[in-house]
Amino acid sequence: MAPKRSIGVPPPPPPSVPAGRLLSRQQSVGKLKKSSIMSSLFRELKTKLEGSRLQIKLSSRTKKQFGGSAGGKEGLAVFLRELTKRSPFFQQIEEDAQNHAKTILELKAAINSFQTKDMTELIKFQQHMEAILEVLTDENQVLAKFEDFPIKKLETIRAAAALYSKSNLVVSNLKNWEVKSPAAQLLNKFDCYFTKVKEELDAFERTKDEESRNFKSHGIDFDFNIFVTIKELMVDVSSNCMELVLKEWGETKGANDAEKKANKNLLWRAFKLAFRVYSFAGGNDERADKLAKELANERRVQ
Asked: What's in the keyword line of the UniProt record (predicted)?
């Protein structure tokens, strides 16, 4: 067996960094994430498969050895305990619990006392937790051996960090949205992205109050202003789309009828998208209002 990688509680996180720094960190995170279901699926399959083989091995002689039919349940329990002790998987869990006990107890205390309204601090603490837990053979099995380990708070911290990281990625994408011709392709791309983000935010809005209470009950004062930022940036990108459509329309006014018809349709598509964004954001800024009016006027006179 390869030597175990020792772990220790990382040093306290450095001072908070500006929001821009947080965005760059989030962009560097890979696609593979720690699975929330793999451990439970593994345990379920292991129990099912090893349990089947266990029934085959339990001959009448084995039953007699462990007390026959009268003491069958007790004998089976003893047999299962012995099987567990000999299982490499459960032996490794016992070793993890012993080898990392000090670190896990320190993490337990840190999670219990963790409170924040700083989202950068939240992300750093979640990364700090994962650095400790990722080396365990089976996180749930090992942590279950430590009395009153705050599993619910651990999962709440993960959920809050994931929500903020995902929202922060949307902010980054919108801030860096590339606006280039042809306008038709730009509208298609932005329309798809806007629809996806809108559906996710609308779904979250329906549970926002409940999630907020849950976060606060575990010491997390979540910064929901990031959703306001997303809406403002959606309006900005929508305005950029309208500008490009108007620019291309001005360049093709003297084109043939087929091209003019296509560009007139583009004016309408851009306006409809801008209206959807406006409805989602709950308002417009002066630039968006001005461009929408210009777009509508150009389409009306055609």
From this structure: Coiled coil
